[in-house]
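QA checklist item 7 of 12: single-chain prediction sanity check.
[x] sequence parsed
[x] length recorded as 283
[x] structure emitted
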Amino acid sequence: MIEAIILWALALVWILFAVVQDIKTREIYNWLNFSLIIFAIGFRFFYSFFFLNGFNFLYQGLIFGIFFFILGEIFYYSKMFAGGDGKLFFALGTVIPLNASFFANLELVGLFILIFLIVGFLYGFIATLYFAIKNLSRFKKEFSRQFNKSKIFVYSLLGISILLVALSFLGYPFWILGVICFFLSYLYLLAKSVDESCMVKKFNVSMLTEGDWLYKDVKVGKKIVKATWDGLTKKEIYLLKKRNKDVLVRVGVQFSPAFLISFVILFLGLLVDKVDFLWKAFW
């Protein structure tokens, strides 16, 4: 158990540094994420070599590290994660598995992902509401514009919602699905309106950092710097600096605190040996 406490306690310190860095600089540096991966794998190797009979402790970290890497890539390309978030998620995959049994680790990892999805949703929703209230006048105008633009989508979900509620006599899941459909359209409008009205800011090119998201393509001489999900490269920033003007940048919500909160919940649950209680609480 001492190896788990050491591994997880140091990982917690790493995540705290990632949160501070993310809030201050709007990015999580690669060296921080990769150093956690190297430390976790290295610690598993040396602990297995000197104190255990075999390398199962190491293999579990490698297996679930690969699993978290694949899942992080899925989240990244579905635009749920930025690049630094995906790498931090990968790093946690090398830390979380504690048991000798693959299936016990699978249950632990599944619990973490469940906690993370719930915390991530609540954190994102609260952050979105905060920006909407902070920029209320701009948000109202954009919400009205997005509603008019997405009327077919909104009314379609509303119709599906009414149908599902009408079918609730067949069972309560229909009523739950109906309510979800009703709120889903307005959550989409809320998120889209905040994104367009509150999360696009003007930056001087001297303030740009690698990975920043351009709001739209920028022409520099005969070249065009594309607005892509991968963000700006160092070469593209160099080109933009030649232009020496302000550019519009899409600023995302720093998501690293959701990692910290989720990890702490699971960490405390393990310390008090209440993993079963956590499962029951979330189910």
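[x] summary fact logged: The first helix runs from residue 2 to 25.
[ ] second reviewer sign-off
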